[in-house]
Write a structure and sequence with these properties.
The chain is of the alpha+beta class. The protein has helices spanning 9-19, 25-30, 34-63, 102-108, 139-144, 176-181, 188-195, 203-206, 217-230, 234-239, 244-247, 330-333, 371-376, 382-398, 421-435, 467-474, 479-485, 490-497, 521-535, 540-566, and strands at residues 67-75, 79-80, 83-88, 126-128, 134-136, 248-253, 256-257, 263-268, 272-277, 286-287, 296-301, 317-322, 335-337, 341-353, 448-460, 498-505, 509-517. α1 packs antiparallel against α20, α3 packs antiparallel against α19 and α14 runs antiparallel to α15. It is elongated, with a radius of gyration of 43 Å.
């Protein structure tokens, strides 16, 4: 650059314009006519405008923090075996009702007759109902049955008993004509059924009631049982349920024997005692092959004779396959295991990795008090977090706790009673708030999650030719099994009371789902660079050229300011125009 062009700011600017590598600027500088300069200037400004629009659009796309989902199928030679939780459908043993309080037995023990005054005795031919009221047997039942079977069913000829445990206010009426002509050899239940003149209740009659306004009596009875059990200590509740030493007839892990000592236990509000195999506190089990020979195999004893009448509808077990450090929820995720069948539960792994930070609100730790972590020492899960949040709000707002979820030992509150209208109104309000997502629970999906997908198949078990070996294997497990196997038809008893379940990996291929940024910062830089090159012909080197140009212009301005400061006039004193040794006349003398 020539010296004359760098002496002024305009000269330096004209030089940079003519030598810039940015498209358009040199053409503006080299143009000789105003029209040409105007056209090139408009084209350059239009390109800058288009560039700004594209950069803003790309920036908005980046700051939306969208993501894509990548699905991959991976293979591992050795996999962590999941935890397996098993629960009996029956929460309370019938034989344990004798140790319960009189109020508890009155509500839930159909064979319990509350003691009356000392001078009153139950008349002959009468028996106790669920609510303690006396019901009268029919003459047909007394004469033809031969043996009394109190509360043997709705056809026993006694006053009907409702599902909620209350006697039917409309007792069955008998047709005296039909009753007198029935033969003595007629079956009691059949004769009673034929003698009933009670009108059938059609759906038209039932629809006259308050549907969706009043709870079903059987539902209320079950909820009452849950609340009553929540009023006693957890140790007392577990003493009333099925023990694993009785329920587990046989256990094998990869062909090696296992025992109740390999299980942990917890109490479930609906199913009572639940037992978990391969809980993380018991170690970490691995398996290196798929198939039932390399998994968990159990023979389970249902104990149907110990089921609570009018409470437990199904016979069998509830099984959950879950992570060793996760809280199982058998009422939601469980698999039904039926007696008389061999159930095969084949599991497959699905790993999910979610982006955190600005891309999603996933979390691996609860932001509120996690009751399940404090009580059972489990890790974070969305379901546990939401239920803990709800329970904390119930304790805070209603001054009681929901018996469907665990309670902190030091909370100092009691379960919410169904008869407490204030507590029910409070629970209803919180349910609405939970439904509307206004509880502010701050519960999100886990950033890292392992889910076990299961497929279930079953077959009749045991086979006819295998019964004798099965009897020999389990006859010494406990006294109840031994007694029933020595009866006349042990095969039928086994099919009603014994189940087999196998849990194993179906394959070692597993799904790996990962969230990836849809538009990362690298993509933003690349696209912005492309737009700069497209509209203005700029590159990274042009950026350095621009920086150099700014520095050059700053140097020119600084030099000009310095020259202007030096040329400023200042007073001159004792200026002599002659040599010192010349004693001529000075300016002061002129």
């Amino acid at each position: 650059m020539g010296e004359s062009s760098g002496d002024t700011f305009s000269g330096a600017f004209d030089y940079l314009m003519s030598t810039s590598s940015a498209h358009g600027l040199p053409n503006v500088q080299r143009s000789k006519t105003i029209l040409s300069k105007t056209i090139w200037s408009m084209l350059f400004l239009g390109s800058v405008t288009a560039l700004l629009i594209q950069v803003i659009t790309l920036s908005n796309t980046f700051f939306e923090y969208n993501y894509t989902v990548s699905l991959d199928v991976k293979f591992d030679r050795s996999l962590h075996f999941p935890a397996v939780t098993i629960c009996n459908y029956n929460p309370v043993l019938r034989s344990k009702l004798a140790d319960a309080s009189e109020e508890f037995r009155t509500a839930f023990d159909v064979n319990f007759v509350p003691p009356g005054p000392p001078n009153e005795a139950a008349p002959s031919g009468q028996q106790g109902g669920i609510d303690g009221s006396l019901t009268t047997e029919t003459s047909e039942t007394q004469s033809s049955g031969g043996t009394d079977h109190p509360n043997s069913g709705p056809n026993s000829g006694s006053q009907q008993v409702g599902t909620a445990g209350l006697a039917n206010p409309n007792p069955t009426t008998l047709n005296p004509t039909t009753a007198s002509t029935s033969s003595p050899g007629t079956n009691a239940s059949t004769a009673t059924t034929e003698n009933v003149t009670e009108a059938l209740e059609s759906w038209d009659d039932r629809e006259q009631g308050d549907f969706f306004r009043e709870r079903d009596p059987s539902y209320l009875l079950e909820q009452t049982l849950i609340t009553e059990l929540a009023n006693i200590t957890e140790q007392e509740r577990m003493m009333m349920g099925h023990s694993l030493s009785t329920m587990l007839l046989d256990c094998k892990w990869k062909g090696y024997p296992c025992s109740p000592s390999n299980f942990t236990s917890f109490y479930h509000y609906k199913y009572g005692n639940c037992y978990t195999f391969n809980h993380f506190t018991k170690g970490d089990l691995f398996t290196n092959r798929p198939g039932p020979l390399y998994g968990l195999s159990m023979r389970l004893f249902v104990q149907q004779d110990e089921y609570m009448p009018d409470i437990t509808e199904s016979a069998g077990f509830r099984l959950v396959v879950h992570g060793p450090d996760k809280m199982p929820f058998p009422e939601d995720d469980g698999i039904a295991i039926s007696p008389g069948f061999q159930t095969a539960v084949a599991a497959r792994i699905m790993n999910i990795e979610r982006l955190g930070g600005l891309y999603s609100n996933c979390s691996d730790s609860p932001k509120s008090n996690d009751i399940f972590k404090e009580v059972y020492n489990t890790t974070y899960s969305l379901k546990a977090c939401e239920r803990s949040c709800y329970q904390n709000q119930v304790i805070k707002e209603c001054k009681c706790f929901d018996p469907h979820y665990p309670n902190l030992p030091d909370s100092g509150v009691f379960p919410c009673e169904l008869t407490d209208e204030k507590a029910i109104d409070c629970l209803t309000k919180l349910d609405d708030m939970y439904k509307n997502d206004s509880l502010q629970c701050d519960c999100y999906q886990a950033c890292s999650e392992t889910t076990y997908l299961t497929s279930v198949s079953s077959s009749v078990w045991p086979a006819d030719k295998y019964e004798d070996k099965l009897f020999r294997d389990i006859i010494d497990r406990n006294e109840e099994v031994r007694t029933n196997l020595r009866k006349t038809s042990p095969g039928e008893w086994v099919k009603r009371n014994v189940a087999k379940v196998d849990v194993f990996f179906q394959e070692f291929n597993y799904q790996y789902i990962k969230q990836l940024p849809a538009y990362a910062f690298v993509n933003l830089i690349s696209d912005v660079g492309g737009q700069l090159g497209l509209w203005l012909g700029l590159s990274v080197l042009t950026m350095f050229e621009f920086v150099e140009s700014c520095g050059f212009l700053f140097r020119v301005c600084f030099a000009k300011m310095a020259r202007r400061k030096k040329t400023t006039c200042t007073p001159v004193k004792n200026l002599k125009i002659f040599p010192v040794d010349n004693r001529g006349v000075s300016l002061e003398q002129l």
